[in-house]
Amino acid sequence: MASQLAQAHEAAKQSPQQAVELYNSVLFADKADNVTMSDRETALLALAALYEQMQDASALTTLINGSQQFLVTISKAKSSKLIRTLVDRFNGISGALQVQISTCKGMLDWAKTENREYLRQALETRLVSLYLDSHLYTDALALISQLLSELKKLDDRMQLVEVHLLESRVYMALKNLPKSRAALTSARTAANSIYTPPPLQAQLDLQSGTLHSDEGDFKTAYSYFFETMEGLNVYANSKSVSESASAAASYEQQQLQAFAYMILCKIMTQQPDDITSLFATGKTAAKFRDRQTVVALQTVAKAQKQRSLADFEKALNEFRNELQSDELIRTHLSALYDTLMEQNLLRLIEPYSRVEITHIAKLIGLPIGVVENKLSQMILDKVLCGILDQGNGCLVVFPEPRHDSTYETTLDTIKSLSNVVESLYAKAATLYSRASYILKDKWDCVPNCQIPETAGTVVDYKWHHMSPTSVGYIAHNDYTRIIVVAFRGSADANDWVQDSEFSFDPWPAHVPGSMVHHGFLSAYRAVAPNVTSAISRLVAQHPTYKLVFTGHSLGGAESALCAVDMLSRYPQLKQRTYIYTYGMPRVGNDVWANMVEKMSVPAYRVVYESDLVPHIPFEWLGYMHFSQEVWIHGNRTVFCGKDHESQQCSGSVAIGDYNIPDHSQYSLANWRFTR
Fold it and tell me: Are 120 and 108 in contact (CB under 8 A)?
C-alpha cells in the first residue's frame, strides 16, 4: 500500500483524476487487504487536499460523509482532528461557503449520534465562524449563547477564548461596540489563565486593534497590529511548526492584513512620512512592499501628504478592489476623504463672502453636484456658516456668529441654586430625623429644635404605636416652607438585627411583582390611615411647601414606604417631594427599587462608613436598594449615582468589616450636601 500511495502522490501532479482513484482504493480497501490505519489516514488527507486543489466542493462533501465509517474505527481525539481538518479544506475552494455550512451541520448530526461532545463543540465553534462569514448574525449569536453556557460549566478555557473572540467579531459586525468590547475582554481574561497559541493570540491582538481603530485610538491600535504581525512571523518561522500550505497562507494573509492596518493607522494620525520606515521593521514587512493593498495605501498616503483631493479620489478609483473589500479600511478612508474635502473647501472659501459653486468645483476638481451636497452638509453640521443661493448658483458666507454664553451661564446658576436648596433640605432632614428620637409634644427639644434651620417648626401630628412599633411626627415650617414627615428608628440596632423577619409581602398592589419587607410594611400599615390623612390635610393647607420624608434606620424604611404610598395616591406631589434616609435597611426587591427610581423624585440614602444595617436583609434573599446612595467615607461624601448599590461606595467594604457602632454616627457634621 505504501507503493500505491507513492503512485497516487506522483499521479496527483500530472493526472488528478487517476490520483483520486488510487487514494480511494487505499481509503476504502477491504480489511483483507491489510491496509494500515495510518495509510488510510494519509489517503484521506491527501484526497481532501486534492479536491481542494481541484476546486471540487461536492466531491469533498461526499468524501467527508463517506469517511464516517473509517472515523469510527480510530480514536475520538484523532477523528476529531481529522474532521476539523477536512472541514477546513473548504476554505481553499471559492464559492463553497454554503456547502461548507451544510457539510458542517451534517457532521454535527453525526457527532451527536456518536456522543462525541468535544467534536460537537468544536464543529459548533466552526459553524459560528461560518455564520459570521455568511452574515447570519442571529444564528451565530444563538449558537454562541448555547456554547458559552456549556463551556463555562466544563471550564474549557481554550475554546472559551475562541468563542468569546467570535462573539466579539459578531457584535462588531453589528456595530455594537460596547458588547464587542465586553466579549473581547472576556476572551482575554480566559486567555490570561492558559497558554494561548500564537495564531489565537494574533487574532486577539488583531481584534483589539480593530476595536481601538473604530474608537479613534489609532496609536493603541497600531501597537496591537504590530504585535499581530510579529507574533505570526515568529510562529511561522519556528522549526517546531509543521502546518499545511493553506494554514501557512492563512497566517501570511493575516500578517498582510495587520501590516495594511498599521499603514492605515499612520495615515489616520496624519503621519504619512512614517510609512517608509515601516518597511525597515523586518523581513516580514519588506516582503509585502509590492502587494496591491500596500501599494494602494501608499498612494493614498501620498495624496494625503499633498492634500490633493483629486489624487485621493484617483487612488480610490484605481485601487477600488483593494480599498473597498476590507470594511475597516473602507470606513476610515471614507471618513478621511470627507475630512480632506471639508478642509480643502474651507481653504478655498475663506477669501470670499459670496462665491459661485461652479468656481469652487473647478478649483477643487470635483463635480458640481458633489460639491453642492458637501456644502449643504457642512452648513447643516455648522462647520460652515452660510446659505446656498441655488437660484443664482452661489454660496453666501456669513461671519462667524458671536457665541453668547448667557444660556449656559443661566443653566449653571440654576443648577447651583438647586444644589443650595437641596443642601438646605438635606441639613433640615438630618435634624428632623434626629429629633424623632427625643421629641415630645412640642418643638422644644435640645439642641435640634433651636438651630436656625428648624427654629419655628410646628408639630402638627405625632404618633407612638406600640405593636408593631412605629413612632414619628408630622410638622411644618413657615420659614423654610417645608412639610416634614419623620419616622423614628429602632432604639437598639442590635435588637433589630436579631429580631428581623425577612419575609416578603406584595406591595403596592398596583405594581405587579413589587415585594417589600413584611415587618416594615406591618409597622407602616398600623399608622398609615392617620399619617396619610394628616399629610393630605397639611399639603392642602400649604400648596407651595416642599414635602420631605425622612428617617433613620427602620424609620428610613417606613419613610420610604410612606413616600411611595403618598405618591401613588397623589402623583401631582412628585414635583415637591424629597426623600432622605439614614442607615436605612433594604426595604424591597428589584421591582420595588426600580419603581421608586421611576417616580423621579430626589431620593438619597445616606450610609455612614461601614454601617451594617444598610446591607441587610441580604441581597441573596432577593432584596435591593433604590438609588442613589450617599456614602460618608472619611472626610469625603461620595454620590454613587443611579447604580442601585454601587461597588464604588459602601458596597466596596468587605463583609467582615461591617459593624453596628457606625449605625449611630449619623450626625450633621458627617454629611455636607455638596457635589
Answer: yes
